[in-house]
Description:
The protein is mostly helical and about 450 residues long. It folds into three domains: about 10-105, Fumarase/aspartase (N-terminal domain) (Fumarase C, Chain B, domain 1, Orthogonal Bundle), CATH 1.10.275.10; about 125-145 and about 165-195 and about 225-355, Up-down Bundle (Fumarase C, Chain A, domain 2), CATH 1.20.200.10; about 365-430, Fumarase/aspartase (C-terminal domain) (Ribonucleotide Reductase Protein R1, domain 1, Orthogonal Bundle). The chain contains 18 helices and six strands. The strands form three sheets. Strands 1-2 form a two-stranded antiparallel ribbon. Strands 3-4 form a two-stranded parallel sheet.
Amino acid sequence: MKLWGGRFTGEESKLMEEFNNSLSFDRRLYYEDITGSLAHVSMLQECSILTLQECENITMGLNSILADIESGTLLIEGDYEDIHSFVESNLIQRIGDTGKKLHTARSRNDQVAVDMRLFSKTMASKLLGNLIELQNSFLKIAEENKEVLMPGYTHLQRAQVVTFSHHMMAYHSMIGRDKKRLLNAMEIMDESPLGCCALAGTTYSTNRESTASKLGFAKPVDNFLDGVSDRDYLIELLSCFSMIMMHLSRFSEELILWSTKEFSFVQLDDKFSTGSSIMPQKKNPDAAELIRGKTGRVYGSLVSLLTVMKATPLAYNKDMQEDKEQFFDALDTVLICTKVMSELLCSLHLNKDNMFQAVKKGFLNATEAADYLVNKGMAFRDAHGVIGQIVIYCESSGKAIEELKLLELKEFSNYFAEDVYEFIDYRATLKKGIKTIM
Length: 438
Ligand code: ARG
């Protein structure tokens, strides 16, 4: 059934109907669509546009539709153009002619705009919960491994010693910023477009403040043309999702590397790995690889919506219907990836000894050994040269710097004394270097 059949004489082609139909994906907005309508009719009654009796009938009808959808007795399917038509048609079927008054002083343009805002606000809160959980998982594993030393890298080459905790807390900081970005996006989008109607409001004296406050928005939007055609908030959320995925992909990449035989720093729990159908020895880090891969998919949605919105004239255009599938897909992806990563992290096994061996073999106190000579009076550039020579010597004899005898060290510089060993001790260097908690 069409809501807009009045001015048409010919039939819409089947192909066009199929092409235009959005019910298969906007059905996801049923709750927000009904909630928006409930606020709308209540406002219409307050403004004496509907009688109390009409408002009560419509409210009862909408609530029964909601209850039946949630209990599974009313399936969202059939020959309806979109979720808005589905709800309105069902309302008219249930309560008769009064149902035809629901759409007074409203357009599907402000209706879909308010539905999407309500939906994305709820989902952003859900994601915020996932981020808090993920941040806690990073904190937990950091707290449990404060004493674990590992190589810190630059250029993926062993650079200086760090603690495993400090490495984990780097991700804790990233997720902390992701939370702030998300909260900021939620604050900016907290305006109701309901009441803008198609683009230029309505001749009825409606009350946008009332619907905005009933629906939990901070205020109504300032501009009607912008209100119905603004999709910035979705793009901003997609940008937050992309940044979260970028962070997850960096950690995924590290987990994939660390779980190789070559690194052997960690072992993923069986819960989050899979095997090979042909190579019996394999244990693959699929969860981390999937997260890394799905990052591309979320970036794709961001670029897709930016491109959909590019150069669209004011106000509403049907192009904007293309926001939904991309947004839903990216949202589902980031929700599951944050959840999987959090659980994977809690079940991670560390090979602490391998990490420490890598620290020793990596000359990760070379910088501090140079600092030692500087403290004794040598210029840093000269000290850098001396330690470079010592590293060559160590490599050929298979030793770490701290394993050299004082006499051997003195061959390279007379500044070396007994106190060098304490100075270049890994834990001592860490204490001097990283001056934060964990
Ligand atoms: N399905 C549409 C969308 O998602 C709803 C708004 C339709 N408005 C219209 N005038 N055709 O954008």
